[in-house]
Amino acid sequence: MRCVWEHNGNDTLLYSADYIGAYTRGDSLESAMSKMRIEIEAYSRWKGQECAQEADIQIVQEKDSDLQISDADSDVLFDSEREPLTREEYEDLKALVLKSAGDFYALYVSVPNKDESCLPQRSTFYGNVPRTAQEMYEHTKNVNSYYFAEIGIDVDTEGTIYDCRKRGFDLLEQTNGFLNNTVNNGSYNELWSLRKVMRRFLWHDRIHAKAMYRMAIKTFGRFGIVNTFKFITD
């Protein structure tokens, strides 16, 4: 199983290089590796595919970072994210990114009280961690304009998370040569490409969908909360 390892000291973000958007976190590489099998099982169920047979993890790229990795701050560009896209690859990834947006919205809608949460306040590098379904949803939806802007696409966040993400792709497809997957130097000197944008959408959705699902079943119980991402929970 090929993985990319981004870390600050022992704090680790471990990304699957083949299941785009799948990831684990841990206070060590070993801790993150121990969680990867469960993550891939959930991801495969979400995609409606069989999970591949268990295999040893192979680190194919490493990024030693000075970011707050423990809070999921990330700027790694995969080596594979520099490669041009075929139209088929693009359409497959776009469909998955839009599915993720739709599933995130369905999870959000299923939470009975969007402004109630049992979670305590906590701060990170980007401010207070979203606690309620409403806060998690607004935070995740607003990332649409940020990610698209990093590859030169100006899109608003009107409508649902699905609406504004779809609008971003529609605008992208009106630009010449977007399948060339040009690498751009974006905000804070972070390198971005279209492949990275699509991986980051999937990754970021999973982070906050997992947090929303866990918060919701802890706050309201499991009844009525839809597990659209097929997460495995205790």
What level of helicity do the residues show?
A: 40-55%
One letter per element, helices H and strands E, the order comes to: EEEHEHEEHHEEH
The biggest sheet amounts to: 4 strands, mixed
Give me the side-by-side strand order of the main sheet. 3-2-1-4
Number of helices: 5
Give the tally of β-strands: 8
Over the alpha carbons, how many angstroms does the gyration radius reach?
17 Å
Multimer state = single chain
Q: Tell me the distance between the termini.
A: 25 Å
Q: State the low-pLDDT regions, or none.
A: none
Give the helix/strand class. alpha+beta
Share of β-strand residues: 5-15%
Q: Average pLDDT, to the nearest integer?
A: 95
Shape: globular
Describe the structure.
With 234 residues, the chain is α+β, with helices and mostly antiparallel strands. The chain is 42% helix and 14% strand. The chain has five helices and eight strands; from the N terminus they run βββαβαββααββα. The strands form three sheets. Strands 3-2-1-4 form a four-stranded mixed beta sheet, covered by helices on one side. Strands 5-6 form a two-stranded antiparallel ribbon. Strands 7-8 form a two-stranded antiparallel sheet. The mean pLDDT is 95.
